[in-house]
Amino acid sequence: MYKTGTLTGAAEVLFISQPGVSLHLSSLENYVGYKLFDRTGRKMVPTERGKVLYNFTIEALSKLEEAEKNFQRSTEKHTPMISIGMCFETFQITLEQYISTLPFNVIIRFGEYPEMVENLEKGILDIIITPQMVPKASIEYQPFSSETIVIVGGNQTDETEFEVIESTKDSELIEAWLKQQKWYGTTGDMEHLRRFWQLNFNKYPDFRPNYIVPNLNSIVRCLSSGQGLAVIPDFLCKKELESKQIKLIWKGKVPLENTLHFATRKKTIYADEINLIKKIFIDEMA
After folding, report:
1. How far, in Å, CA of 154 to CA of 175, rounded?
2. Mean of pLDDT over the chain
3. Strand intervals (E) in 78-118
4. Phi first, then psi: what are they for 90, rounded to 5°?
5. pLDDT at 188
6. Are the C-beta atoms of residues 186 and 219 closer than 8 Å to each other?
7. Between 160-167 and 171-179, two packed helices, what is the crossing angle to 10 degrees?
8. Which of 11, 37, 195, 213 is the Cys-Cys partner for 218 at CB 3.0 to 4.6 Å?
């Protein structure tokens, strides 16, 4: 009734009679204890309290309707819906190109890894690609690849002076040169830069990047046509490094490595679909 604005419209949507709609409305108004609609001619105009009730319940009702559609028994062939969690950049360089070829439906979700693990445990996600392991009794982790966090530079960056300084192994000189350069970072995520600096200089960086862009793939594209530095996982820019669109500047004194894992529930009805997703990632990151 809120959506259609009339008793007749609501009756048509619900496949019940108009008197039936009126009866349900009266019952609901008696239950909540106040008027939900004003009758203006043929129009049903929601009261302020009616609007509040609608806005408070609409999300839950929509989820119930979606659950009904997904779980209702049907004689039609069921196409599985697989929900996959990962970072945006990983999706772009691995799975994105294969989406249209998958023999099942897919929902891709991005977010923080601990939150994705919670959603995996709840059944909202079916598989996660993650460098972090959050222990959960119902979840298992399978390592499948690794990434090294490195400093890369634009193809016009002159690293000659840095090569001389780096050969001295003087941490203060190395840090000073690096801090003099123009830096790229991503919106709200400086984890790679902080971890790299902490490992190599035993402190957090005391500067902010000059250019903040949406994601790590944006950084790679920006560096491909100019100068500057950034700290990113090497697998995100493997092709650009091989084609010399960007340069590897420094791996650090001690390599900073992440192991990438598949995280899945121990019990799942989508084992075949999940194995296909795993194969794509293993082949792409070999």
Report:
1. 18
2. 90
3. 81-85, 105-109
4. -60, -40
5. 63
6. yes
7. 160
8. 213
How high is the pLDDT of residue 263?
97
pLDDT in tens, 106-117: 999 998 889 999
> Which residues are bridge partners to 211 per DSSP?
184
Handedness of CA 7, 9, 11, 14 (dihedral sign): negative
pTM of the complete model: 0.65
Q: How far apart are CA 203 and CA 194, in angstroms?
A: 8
Residues 150, 248: contact at Cβ < 8 Å? yes
Q: Is the pLDDT of residue 265 over 90?
A: yes
Q: Which two tokens stand for residue 62?
A: 């929509």
How far CA 76 is from CA of 67, 71, 73, 100, 138, in Å, comes to 17, 12, 9, 22, 32
* Nearest C-alpha neighbor of 110 from the set 192, 188, 197, 208: 188
- 8 Å CB contact between 140 and 132: no
pLDDT per position as a tens digit, 240-249: 999 999 999 9
Q: What are phi and psi of 132, to 5 degrees?
A: -115, 140
User: Counting beta carbons within 10 angstroms of the beta carbon of residue 185, is it exposed (0 to 12), middle (13 to 18) or buried (19 or more)?
Assistant: buried
Q: In whole angstroms, what separates CA 285 from the centre of its chain?
A: 19
Nearest to 79 by CA among 273, 283, 281, 261: 273
Tokens of 248: 């590897």
Chain centroid offset of residue 79 CA:
23
Determine the pLDDT at residue 245.
Answer: 92
Tokens of 284: 């792409």
Cα separation, 127 vs 95, whole angstroms: 13
